[in-house]
UniProtKB/TrEMBL annotation, chain A:
<dbReference type="InterPro" id="IPR051613">
    <property type="entry name" value="ABC_transp_permease_HisMQ"/>
</dbReference>
<dbReference type="GO" id="GO:0005886">
    <property type="term" value="C:plasma membrane"/>
</dbReference>
<keyword id="KW-0472">Membrane</keyword>
<feature type="domain" description="ABC transmembrane type-1">
    <location>
        <begin position="29"/>
        <end position="269"/>
    </location>
</feature>
<keyword id="KW-0812">Transmembrane</keyword>
<dbReference type="InterPro" id="IPR000515">
    <property type="entry name" value="MetI-like"/>
</dbReference>
<protein>
    <submittedName>
        <fullName>ABC transporter permease</fullName>
    </submittedName>
</protein>
<keyword id="KW-1133">Transmembrane helix</keyword>
<keyword id="KW-0813">Transport</keyword>
From TrEMBL, chain B:
<dbReference type="Pfam" id="PF00497">
    <property type="entry name" value="SBP_bac_3"/>
</dbReference>
<feature type="signal peptide">
    <location>
        <begin position="1"/>
        <end position="20"/>
    </location>
</feature>
<comment type="similarity">
    <text>Belongs to the bacterial solute-binding protein 3 family.</text>
</comment>
<dbReference type="GO" id="GO:0030313">
    <property type="term" value="C:cell envelope"/>
</dbReference>
<keyword id="KW-0732">Signal</keyword>
<protein>
    <submittedName>
        <fullName>Amino acid ABC transporter</fullName>
    </submittedName>
</protein>
<dbReference type="InterPro" id="IPR018313">
    <property type="entry name" value="SBP_3_CS"/>
</dbReference>
<dbReference type="InterPro" id="IPR001638">
    <property type="entry name" value="Solute-binding_3/MltF_N"/>
</dbReference>
<feature type="domain" description="Solute-binding protein family 3/N-terminal">
    <location>
        <begin position="23"/>
        <end position="235"/>
    </location>
</feature>
Length: 295, 239
């Protein structure tokens, strides 16, 4: 980074530190903060979408759809996250490669499962072995997003269906009395009103999601915790910048980062709550209305 | 000069056999200096990286490095996420049942204990080792209480903060940690394993043959010995 960093052995004090903190390896650490935030910002809406569909399915008047929704939420909520994180991406990956193998190499005679080996023809590999490493990493990220959305979607579905049940029945009855169809009642009355009930549960899920990022390394995505551990561990003279065990400092930095994210999210959710409870017959909504009347 | 001519000749010989677009993905841990580590440049480096690149060149293969957790390094190999394991993995009969090994590129070496003070009870105390290593297996048999960690680095930290009495691992990995004077070698050196080799899928016999040939050629012309001496000190290379 700086000109004087050419020979780390000769550096001391502040200069050593400034060189140390700007090594390309540290840059990857800083970058991983962005990766984590971006990943969460992509995952959250997808998980919410999956949860919304799940919630609608559990309320559906079509029995098979209802069973599907209920099965999904109870199964996923009951199995440990880590099991899903090992299983979903692996199953997806192998499933995808199996299909590609069937489509691209119909002449292949060898078995795909040979003992513990999973062998497909090289054209069926996804991503292909010859694609640059960055695509393999992005593929890992995509699998991670799917796995996260799958797991957190189930929790979101439960929160949302609870919120849907919390909307006063009188509201829905009134809508029905106006002659709205089932779909119209859901779209115009149920969904707009349920958010205020869902918000506390959803904000909980969001916080848990943020802190679940170390699970990413299971999928080969190098997150902030991975880098903090890697950089903080004691370094022998095999490295250019040897140092004793500094993990405490790196984890303190992570603490600050997570507290900041939590604080920001709290502020955001508080605003959303205020906005969504406007005009609602809840304690919060009534409070807002009273304040509005006085002003 | 001779070496260059020889290796280009070898390259020309082997390249005709392999397809040009063949990319071999090499899986390593990146946490086991000086075998393999993530250097300050953010790239993998170390003995095995230099060795692997040279082997790939001799075998006429294009290679790419992939970092993977030690815990899942074998499952990810057999499910095809990469094609080789080159991560200081000792050849053992137990691993050989699941994957295949090339011939060793690092002779069978000793494992040692290091601790904060002399006279630690190695047979009755608490000994740290990395999960899934031959050393962990050995400690479990000695009667000492085995404390396992996912990364080698954590095993060192466990001794430093008093959680474990000693740590047991490859000599070449542990020795640099004694340089600062805080930690010292205790007890006897224990010979373990059948040397370090490259792990491959059992179904990948062709690739195994290529790497075996490349390792043989490096042993014959002495380049492997030079490389071993460079990383692990004079006298390590005895091929």
């Amino acid at each position: 980074m700086f000109d004087f960093c050419a020979d780390p052995d000769l550096l001391e004090g502040g200069r050593w530190l400034s060189c140390y903190l700007t090594t390309p390896k540290h840059m990857m650490f800083y970058q991983s903060f962005l990766v984590v935030i971006v990943l969460m910002l992509i995952t959250a809406p997808i998980a919410l979408g999956v949860g919304f569909l799940g919630a609608l399915a559990t309320r559906s008047h079509l029995a098979p759809l209802r069973w599907l929704g209920r099965g999904y939420t109870s199964l996923v909520r009951g199995v440990p996250d880590i099991a899903f994180f090992l299983f979903v991406p692996l199953a997806l990956d192998q499933g995808l490669e199996y299909l590609r193998h069937k489509a691209k190499c119909p002449d292949w005679t060898d078995a795909i499962r040979q003992g513990s080996d999973f062998v497909v023809c090289s054209e069926a590999k996804f991503p292909l072995s010859s694609t640059p490493q960055i695509w393999h990493e992005l593929y890992g990220v995509a699998l991670a997003i799917i796995a996260f959305a799958f797991v957190f979607g189930a929790f979101a579905a439960f929160v949302l269906s609870g919120a849907m049940n919390a909307v006063p029945r009188a509201q829905l009855e009134t809508a029905e009395a106006y002659g709205m169809t089932r779909g119209q009642v859901t779209r115009r009355v149920l969904v707009p009103q349920m958010w205020t009930y869902a918000l506390p549960g959803l904000s909980n899920l969001w916080m848990i999601l943020i802190k679940a990022t170390p699970l990413l390394f299971l999928l080969g995505v190098e997150d902030v915790v991975y880098w903090a551990r890697e950089l903080g561990g004691s370094k022998t003279s095999a490295y250019s910048y040897p140092h004793p065990d500094w993990r405490i400092w790196y984890f303190l930095a992570l603490l600050v980062f997570y507290l900041l994210v939590t604080k920001l999210s709290e502020v955001g959710f508080a605003r959303l709550t205020r906005r969504l409870s406007r005009g609602q017959a809840t304690a919060h909504g009534m409070n807002e209305a009273r304040k509005g009347a006085q002003a | 000069m001779n070496k260059i001519i020889l290796s280009t000749a070898l390259l020309a010989l082997t390249a005709s056999g392999a397809l040009a677009q063949d990319v071999i993905r090499m899986g390593t841990e990146g946490q086991y200096p000086p075998y393999n580590m993530i250097g300050d440049s953010g790239e993998v480096e170390g003995f095995e990286i230099d060795l692997g690149n040279e082997l790939c060149e001799r075998a006429g293969l294009t290679c790419e490095w992939v970092i993977n957790d030690w815990d899942s390094i074998i499952p990810n190999l057999v499910s095809g996420n990469y094609d080789t394991i080159i991560a200081g993995m000792s050849i053992t009969a137990e691993r050989d049942e699941v994957i295949d090994f090339t011939q060793d590129y690092y002779p069978p070496t000793g494992s040692i204990y290091i601790a904060l003070e002399d006279g630690v009870d190695l047979e009755g105390g608490v000994v740290a080792a990395q999960t899934g290593t031959i050393q962990a297996g050995y400690v479990a048999e000695t009667g000492a209480t085995l404390l396992e960690f996912a990364t080698p680095d954590e095993t060192i930290a466990a001794v430093q903060n008093g959680e474990a009495d000693a740590v047991f691992a490859d000599k070449d990995f542990l020795l640099p940690y004694t340089e600062s004077g805080e930690l010292m070698v205790v007890g006897e050196e224990v010979p373990l394993g059948g040397g370090v080799g490259m792990g491959l899928r059992e179904s990948d016999t062709e690739l195994k043959a290529k790497f075996d040939a490349a390792i043989t050629s490096m042993k014959e012309d002495g380049t492997l010995n030079t490389l071993l001496d460079e990383y692990f000190g004079e006298g390590t290379g005895t091929y």
